[in-house]
């Protein structure tokens, strides 16, 4: 992992949160290399004992600007609670209306779930 080009960007938070380092490394590389996010930065979420990733997700519509998204990585083996999600929201400033939870597995699959704050009517 130390020889990977993304390691210098992640090294401080990988050392601070070793239990969640694998998920952070996997999701960061998926977003930057496979999904081609831009202006990516890594955020510290001490209340959740992990890092989050903030960046601009490209849109297929070239007339629209990329949307800013925040992703909180975790592994499939972790337990997620409502209080954990609340802590993720409240740790971010400004308070976002939504975040994505990226759940990683040992076979390097990553599934992204959009989590909104409160009750939100789905788009029709």
Task: Give a summary of the structure in a few sentences.
By secondary structure, the protein is of the alpha+beta class. The protein is built from three helices and five strands. It is globular.
How is this structure best described in words?
It contains three helices and five strands, in the order H-H-E-E-E-H-E-E. The protein has helices at 7-16, 21-34, 82-90, and strands at residues 38-45, 50-57, 67-75, 98-104, 110-116. Helix 3 (82-90) links the parallel strand 3 (67-75) and strand 4. By secondary structure, it is an alpha+beta fold.
Question: What are the SSEs and their pairings?
Answer:
Elements: H1 7-16, H2 21-34, E1 38-45, E2 50-57, E3 67-75, H3 82-90, E4 98-104, E5 110-116
Parallel strand pairs: 3-4
Antiparallel strand pairs: 1-2, 2-3, 4-5
Helix pairs in contact: 1-2
